Amino acid sequence: MDIHSCLEYIHSRLLFGKKAGFTGISRLLDRLGNPQERLDFIHVAGTNGKGSVTSMLASVWQAYGKKVGWFTSPYLERFHERIRIGNDEIDDASLIRLTERIKTEVEALEKEECYVTEFEVVTAIGLMYFAEQDCDMVVLETGLGGRLDATNVIRHPRLCVITSIGLDHTQYLGDTLAQIAFEKAGILKKGAPVVIYPHMDARAEQVIRTRAEELECSLIVPDKDAVNVLGATLSGTKFCYDGMEISLPLVGGFQVDNAIMTIEAARALGVPDEVIAVGIARATWPCRFEVMQGRKTVILDGAHNHAGICAFADAVKNHLAGRELVLVFGMLPEKDYQKSLAVLSELNARMIVTRPPGPRGEGADRVYEYAKSMGFSAEFICDNISAIKRADDISSHDAAICVFGSLYLTGGVRSFVENFFGV
Fold first, then answer.
1. Residue 344 CA to its chain's centroid (Å)
2. What is the DSSP string of 327-342?
3. Per-residue pLDDT tens digits for 55-80
4. pTM score, two decimals?
5. How far apart are CA 399 and CA 388, in angstroms?
6. H helix intervals, 169-246
7. In what order do the strands lie in the sheet containing 297-301?
8. Mean pLDDT value across the chain
């Protein structure tokens, strides 16, 4: 098996199991010696922000001198990003070796009519890799939801984090914030502390509080009133929080919320404040209002649902006020693009609608037609690279070009943007 066939095998697995639950992942891990039982975890769930919190927590633990594994999804530019130790992605040789081992066990399970999904395979690869590399801590991001997510096979997390909750993946998680919060709160385990988003909707927060009380989990809510922003630019935000001064390199007010969750999570596990500050200052997380400065300013933001678009629009208003804007917008048609376009209409920008990569992007012309019906100065260019080149052609030297609406879009064009604009 070479790396191409390895990845081909992983992506050939079922996207969803025939039955919801942990039978497949549990039986697979049991055959692999239950590597998860040899690891300590911080488990992170939420609709928006969980990747940013995962990256900041991993950076904090690395600054603490610990060997930290982190597991995220989806990837932006290459599969290996999903499984990392410190700053290093899993290497080809390890990925191939672990996949070959897992493939043998998956085939054995299939003979017993037990079927394993793609995400369960990826989760198993990550857990095996972190265990054999003897990680001190693993920051584990859920895939979809929490209660029935394959990562929830872990039994004794050191701590859980639930970030911002919004209406996304409603066909799987429910169509109210309370229902979605119930799914996210499924990661809570008896006695493990839980840190939650500081601006949580009251209905969602009550669901989590109730579950935390049932499991005797201490609930930690960051004090949003303890934040004092000292300055915010396209390079990041400086702020004080509860006696700490933080230099946050991730842009946007929403990242301050993610940072104070990170602070409270790290404090709950005994990490000194000075280490937390260093770790957050070193954090990176591409395509989350990522500013790429070359011959023009380009913003890449994987905001892919209404809440993410609102956060993106707020960041644009705060940091790009008065500048000419060209939006390259590629949102999956299954998302609530109507509400998102209503928010974007406040930005007074020209728009190029493009199609996010992959089969789910089909129907992007509907997004364009709706934008035109709202009065946007818009055009439709299906090909992502051509759309960015067009944005370059119609914008002045001082303009800001914002490419956003899907992680599949931003991850797919990130290398091109770096080269084309001389970042």
1. 22
2. EEE---TTS-HHHHHH
3. 999 999 999 999 999 999 989 999 99
4. 0.92
5. 13
6. 170-173, 177-184, 202-214
7. 290-293, 297-301, 400-404, 325-329, 350-353, 378-380
8. 93
The pLDDT value recorded for residue 167 is 73
User: Can you tell me the mean pLDDT for 336-365?
Assistant: 89
CA 79 from centre of chain: 14
From CA 300, how far away is CA 319, in angstroms rounded?
14
What is the DSSP-derived secondary structure letter of residue 282? T
Residue 142 in tokens: 């859920």
- Count of all residues that appear for the chain in the document: 423
Q: Residue 371: CB partners within 8 Å, gap ≥ 6?
A: 329, 341, 351, 353, 378
Q: Which residue intervals of 112-199 are DSSP H helices?
A: 118-132, 170-173, 177-184
Neighbours of 110 (CB within 10 A): 11
Cα 160-166-172 angle, rounded to 5 deg: 85
Which 3 state secondary structure label does DSSP give 312?
helix
Specify whether the CB–CB gap between 356 and 350 falls below 8 A.
Answer: no
CA-to-CA separations, 148 to 74, 78, 347, 409, in angstroms, rounded: 18, 26, 39, 28
3-state secondary structure of 344: helix
d(C-alpha 405, C-alpha 332), whole Å? 8
Which residue in the block uniquely carries the two structure tokens 């209905």?
203
| DSSP H/E element including 26 | helix 23-31
Write out the H or E segment, with its range, that includes residue 219: strand 219-220
